[in-house]
Design goal:
Organism: Pseudarthrobacter humi
Largest sheet: 4 strands, antiparallel
Strand content: 15-25%
Family: Belongs to the acyl-CoA dehydrogenase family.
Pathway: Amino-acid metabolism; tryptophan metabolism; Amino-acid metabolism; lysine degradation
Mean pLDDT: 94
Protein name: glutaryl-CoA dehydrogenase (ETF)
Number of helices: 11
Cofactor: FAD
Distance between the termini: 52 Å
Number of strands: 11
Oligomer: single chain
Structural class: alpha+beta
Length: about 400
């Protein structure tokens, strides 16, 4: 069997590597090597067994990809483009592993880094960057996914300077293995964020089973039943939806890159297979229809990667706007799913097995397409930008 790792490819037809610095290329090689050594040999079993490899977490910390875009407090302080390249390589291995890095760094750590007190930053961020403490991010609820303003979770004062939280969250990555949760709740002062140790009485995280997507990852239901917290648990600088939305935009940015990693891996698997699979006396790669499929895949991967690089340069320059993040997330995930599905057709019946990656990637991307803003939400964000008229309500 030929895999992407054993095929020599000539797929950077636009020479996009020339847009990357020596340091960026070195970082990409390092993360790609980690994926080749630690993820690719094991991902099929992890996916089939619905297993998330917790033993990789400290290794990801040592690799320097946890909160890698954050500066200070023991965080790596790498550039946005470097973070994007790492996300691309991790998702070429599997969306579930890139999602872990995103939940840990772009959501939980970013919430503390942007909105936490100095005491909170110093206490939590260094061990999280090392992978010694896992965090999760509780925003989505059973009845409030695309409309977080409708959240029903409530935090009220206990009259003694502390807080009591009641409510429920759903589809919360890592919650059952995390040591802390950043929970967003309605208060008399609007929506606020709280750092909740997951061993606090009344906090329960239950993994969601029977998933057809993101099987090598953990998503949970959370219940908060009279969870009592000290006053120091609140994120002091976060008020309103600006707090969680700033974190979501960090995660969405990583998806722009990650989706192209999944697409590239699916394309490489299909290309390698087509070069070796003989039908009617010659390899599949020798047929016009197969070449058309491969060319169309490559065009979208190159365009999507160029979009990711441009978005990253804007982010590093401090010039990236939220609507531009929506452009990247909507386009690249949508195109990546189409590429993975098309790659599966080249594999024929063999493509529905875990021997090949395209259908696994396509299934995972259905989740990526949904979280951090659905296609519909990002379409309406762009529609509002174009027309000046909001269609959300």
């Amino acid at each position: 069997m030929t895999t992407a790792a054993t095929v020599t490819l000539n797929d950077d037809v636009l020479n996009l590597d020339s847009l990357l610095t020596t340091d960026e290329l070195a970082l990409r090689r390092e993360v790609r090597g980690f994926v080749a050594e630690r993820i690719r040999p094991n991902i099929n079993a992890w996916y089939e067994d619905a297993h998330f490899p917790l033993d990789l977490v400290p290794e990801l910390g040592e690799l320097g990809v946890l909160g890698m875009h954050l500066k200070g407090y023991g965080c790596p302080g790498r550039t946005a483009v470097e973070y994007g390249l790492a996300a691309m390589e991790l998702e070429a291995g599997d969306s579930g592993l890139r999602t872990f890095v995103s939940v840990q760094g772009s959501l939980a750590m970013t919430a503390i880094h942007k909105w936490g007190s100095e005491e909170q930053k110093n206490e939590y961020l260094p061990p999280m960057a090392r992978g010694e403490v896992i965090g999760c991010f509780g925003l989505t609820e059973p009845t409030a996914g695309s409309d977080p303003a409708g959240m029903a979770t409530v935090a009220r004062s206990d009259g003694r300077g502390g807080w009591i939280i009641n409510g429920a969250k759903r589809w919360i990555g890592l919650a059952s293995v995390a040591q802390l949760a950043v929970i967003w709740a309605n208060t008399d002062d609007g929506i606020r964020g709280f750092i909740v140790p997951t061993d606090t009485a009344g906090f329960t995280a239950t993994p969601i089973g029977s998933k057809l997507s993101m099987r090598a990852s953990i998503q949970c239901d959370i219940t908060l039943d009279d969870v009592r917290l000290p006053g120091t648990a609140i994120l002091p600088a976060a008020r309103g939806l600006r707090g969680p939305f700033s974190c979501l935009n960090e995660a969405r940015y990583g998806i722009i890159w990650g989706a192209m990693g999944a697409a590239r891996d699916a394309y490489e698997a299909a290309l390698g297979y087509s070069q070796e699979r003989m039908q009617f006396g010659k390899p599949l790669a020798g047929y016009q229809l197969t070449q058309e499929k491969l060319v169309n895949m490559l065009l979208e991967i190159q365009k999507g990667t160029l979009l990711a690089i441009h978005t990253g340069r804007l982010k590093d320059a401090g010039a990236l706007e939220p609507v531009q993040v929506s452009v990247g997330k909507l386009n690249n995930v949508r195109e990546a799913i189409a590429i993975c599905r098309e790659a599966r057709t080249i594999l024929g019946g063999n493509g529905i097995t875990l021997d090949y990656s395209p259908l696994r990637h396509a299934n995972n991307l259905e989740s990526v397409r949904t979280y951090e803003g659905t296609d519909e939400v990002h379409t309406l964000i762009l529609g509002n930008h174009i027309t000046g008229v909001s269609a959300f309500r």
